[in-house]
Design a protein that fits this description.
62 residues, mainly alpha
Length: 62
């Protein structure tokens, strides 16, 4: 089964939530983010890692 944009967005949301809830685990979350991005890139040649990394970051307060 090929993953879709819906899956990538769900992964990014989970990672963003983890960053917000566990500020003491940023290094581990960074590694998990890179690992998931690698799997997504293997699944889809058009996968954009930087866009995924950006989506996995908490939104900055205005």
């Amino acid at each position: 089964m090929t993953m879709s944009r819906k899956h990538y967005r769900a992964f990014a949301e989970i990672l963003r939530h983890a960053r917000e809830c566990h500020p003491d685990a940023q290094d581990a979350i960074d590694q998990i983010t890179r690992d998931i991005a690698g799997i997504c890139a293997e699944d889809n040649r058009a996968f954009r890692r930087q866009q995924f990394y950006d989506a996995a970051q908490p939104e900055e307060a205005p």
